[in-house]
Amino acid sequence: MIQTINQQKIPSNGNNRLIKLEQVVKVFQSAAGEYRALKGIDIEINRGEFVAIIGRSGSGKSTLINMITGIDRPTSGEVLVGSTAVHNLNENQMARWRGRNLGIVFQFFQLLPNLSVLDNVRLPMDLCRAFPSRERRNRAMKLLELVDMNDHAHKLPSSLSGGQQQRVAIARALANDPPVLIADEPTGNLDSKTADSVFKLFERLTSEGKTIVMVTHDSSLARRVGRTILIADGEVVNEYVVRALPILSPSLMLEVSHKARPVYFAPGETIIRKDSPSQMFYIITSGTAEVTLSRPNGTDVVANRMVPGQYFGEISLFTSRKTVAAVRAIPEAPLEALAVDQSMFRRLLDESPDFRTVIQSVVTTRLEQNRSLIGERV
């Protein structure tokens, strides 16, 4: 077991939240005028989460990360890590806080070329005096062992492959036992096999209690984390929209996030009645929806139960037929959802052929399942 620093860092704020950005705006000034890179960002990340931040180039991902690390400051809004208001720290306070509380892994490794692998890992401990000097070499070796690089301890970075350098960079980021790792495109310069091994190392660190926030363009890696935050045009896309409708372009997902109306249903409340025209497409954000069908003998059967990140209401909207099933919140708990109106749903079908294809497939599958459950044509 690697020894930790005998000092409390990032004190608890009384709940499991570790990182909070509240109404964060970042405006850059240029010769062409103002550029709003972040537009009122609200994000919370809990202790022990592995979160991927994704988005197209220029969407605001790196600016967002710079808010958390204190490399840059918001024009307005608040950045809290634990109980520390990062945006209020001066430069000296920021350097000390960052050295103790954040480990940062960069796309281009940024190892010092004239220092050995061992000395690169030991350097953060020397700068922060986080451990007694007699313990630092041994700790650096144990960290290199953790990332399977202990056999290369006395080599210079230039003699290592890209994947090996990134492993050393991860060991260096762990030097002061920070509770948070920030990884900015950590696999961007690695082949897929090496990227996978680095990702598995991050998964292991998360299982051991680290909180990891990773910026990535790699959609295959992003799908493997516990949670994904999509940034589009400087704004956070609603995470339930992302989960329900990943086939949409980021701009369309952002528009759905803006135009969808939050709705609430009491436990057991009917949301859609059978044989009535559906007016809304619903994306569940909290609770469970129960879909029921009526059999010819008059009894009802539960066809499906749906949870946050799933949707319903698409069959009637897509086919322009009356609804074939009833949907309600389960009796045990309320349900919250985002309601997308018919005109927006139709627009999504028109502007995204991939979305139309997915909805067509879902409608076909659900109608076939309904037929098998009630034994007649629906």
Give a structural overview.
The chain is an alpha+beta fold and 378 residues long. It is 35% helix and 28% strand. The chain has helices spanning 61-69, 91-101, 117-128, 133-146, 162-173, 192-207, 219-222, 239-244, 250-259, 314-319, 342-351, 353-374, and strands at 17-30, 33-46, 50-54, 76-81, 84-85, 102-105, 180-184, 211-215, 227-232, 235-236, 261-265, 270-272, 280-286, 289-294, 300-306, 311-312, 326-329, 335-341. The strands form four sheets. The chain has a six-stranded mixed β-sheet with strand order 6-7-8-3-9-10, sandwiched between helices.
The protein's oligomeric status is single chain
Number of helices: 12
Shape from CA axes? elongated
Percentage of residues in DSSP E strands: 25-35%
Structural class category: alpha+beta
Strand arrangement within the widest β-sheet reads: 6-7-8-3-9-10
- What series of H and E elements makes up the topology? EEEHEEHEHHHEHEHEEHHEEEEEEHEEHH
Sheet with the most strands, sense and barrel status: 6 strands, mixed
The value of Rg in angstroms is: 25 Å
The count of β-strands is 18
* Portion of residues within helices: 25-40%
Give unreliable regions as ranges.
Answer: 1-8
